[in-house]
Structure of Carboxynorspermidine decarboxylase:
Amino acid sequence: MSGQIRTPYFLVDEKRLIQNLELLKKVEEEGPCRILLAQKAFSMFSVYPLIRKYLVGSTASGLYEARLGKEEFGGETHVFSPAYREDEFEELLTYADHLVFNSPSQLRKYSPRARALGKETGLRINPECSTQEGHAIYDPCAPGSRLGTTLEQFEEELLPLLDGLHFHTLCEQDSDDLETTAEVFEKKFGKYLYQMKWVNFGGGHHITRKDYDVERLLRIVRHFHETYGVTVYLEPGEAVVLNAGYLVTSVLETLYNGMDLAILDTSAACHMPDVLEMPYRPPLKNSGEPGEKSYTYRLGGPTCLAGDVIGDYSFDMPLKEGDRLVFEDMALYTMVKTNTFNGMPLPSIALRHVDGSKEVIRSFGYEDFKKRLS
C-alpha cells in the first residue's frame, strides 16, 4: 500500500469511494431525496468531479467552503452558519443557492436580501431530542445549545421568509435515531411543512456502514415526501468516505517506560485531532487490542505535547524503526482538521485509482507552515 511515498500521507481509495457513492445514489433514487456532500467532513476537491456524478451538490459552513463548493463541485451549494458576518454576506450570496439561518433574528436580517436574488432560505430547528451516547461535543440538542431554533423561539410570522426547515442532530448514527428525532420534529413542526418546499435532515447518517438500516431511512424519507410534498435533503459527510481513506505513518523510535512505546512520524494532535477531541481509538491495520497479540505498544506522535497519544495496540512482532503502519478510516475529519502545531509538516494527500496505481495529489512543506504565521 505505501509504495515509495514519504510518510506520513493520507491515501484515499477511489474504488471504496465509488462503492459508497453508488449506495448513496441508490438512496437518492429510491427515496426520493437529494444528497449533498458535507464539506466540513471531507474537502478533497480533486475527487469532486467523481463525487458530483452521484450527489447533487455540497453543503458549507461558511464563506470559504461555499466558494470551494461552488467553484469545484458545482450543482447545488447550501450553506448553514450559526451567525453570518455582514462583511461576508454579499460575497456569500454569489456562491450559495440555499442559505439556512440559525435564529429568527438572523433570518429576519438576511433572508429578504437572499430571496430578492432568488436564493432559497430556511431555518435550522432544534427539536430538543438528544440521541447521542458518549459524544456530548457533537450533540446540538444538549441543554444550552447555540445551534438551532426551539419551538419556544419559533414564530409563525417567520413563515413567509421560509422555503424549508432544517435539523441536524446525529453523529455516526443509524436510522433508528433519525426516526426518533424525525417523530419529535414532526410533532412540533410538521404542521408548517405543508407550506415548505423542502426539509433537510442534516448529516450524521452512517448510511454506508455495513449494519446501517437503509430501508428504515427510505421509509422516513418517503413519509415526509408523500405526506407534506416536500423535497428531502440529506447532508452526509462521513458516509461519503467511510472506510475509504488511510493515514500511512512510519515508526521513528521505540522505547520503554513501564510499557513499550513507539514514536511515529504522525501526530494525533496535528493530523487526526478527533482522536483527542471525541476521543476515540482509530483502527490500525494488522493490529489488535492491548494484550491480544504478543507485543503491545503505546503509539504517540513526535510533538512536545505529552498527551499526543494515539492509543495502545498489539502486534505479532516487535515494532522497529522504519516500520510502516496504516491507520484506517482516515478520510473523514482528518485532512480538514490538520494543523502545524510544533512546526509539524502536513501529511501529503494521495489517491489510489481503481486500477491500483497511486498518485500524490499534493505535498506540503515549510512554506505551508510559515504562511499560517506572521
Notes: The mean pLDDT is 97. The chain has two domains: 31-241, 245-330+338-370. The radius of gyration is 22 Å. The longest strand covers residues 245-256.
